[in-house]
């Protein structure tokens, strides 16, 4: 092979080598750039994931905090409303009896502390007509005995129960199971009628009303009136009206007892 031919061959090989090297170098450069971008993307993804996680955590914490605050606010509102609640509550006769029994047990200690006796014979009467019995209160008439004349819908308040505080002749204090021997004799059978007698009546509106006398001149029907047999107003009206009791403890106790049925 001539010298000129070898020179040509060598030149061609050199050119090919340079081309391959350039291509390899370019490929390496591109591959490095791709890896760099992938690394950046991964780093950014991790950063975004971290931000999302933090945002999610912050949101959860904020919602939890808001929930706690809301719960606390609700709790405060509930406590406030439980003191001022005066909406009527519908009770069965059995439930009324249970509430009054619980109230009477509470009044037992109150009476003993005041050296007085307490009983649930706050109202009673002998032979009567077929009209409803009621009591006058600052919030309207309270139905005390339902004869359906005029009936429950005619009254804004309905009785849940009641108690009477008095002083026994024998000095007994606290809850008494028997304070009246006869309707005719009334409280005078066993109570010292020279001492004050106080009646409490419990309304389904959550309020306690009281009628207090300066002496014992009070009968079983004192504070109560009766409608005519046809449900119209009669001349037999209460001689005394009940007032809203200033006994805050009694008001709170009734509210607590009725809260179970609201």
Automatic annotation (TrEMBL):
<feature type="region of interest" description="Disordered">
    <location>
        <begin position="44"/>
        <end position="88"/>
    </location>
</feature>
<keyword id="KW-0812">Transmembrane</keyword>
<feature type="compositionally biased region" description="Basic and acidic residues">
    <location>
        <begin position="44"/>
        <end position="64"/>
    </location>
</feature>
<feature type="compositionally biased region" description="Low complexity">
    <location>
        <begin position="65"/>
        <end position="88"/>
    </location>
</feature>
<keyword id="KW-1133">Transmembrane helix</keyword>
<protein>
    <submittedName>
        <fullName>Uncharacterized protein</fullName>
    </submittedName>
</protein>
<keyword id="KW-0472">Membrane</keyword>
<feature type="transmembrane region" description="Helical">
    <location>
        <begin position="6"/>
        <end position="26"/>
    </location>
</feature>
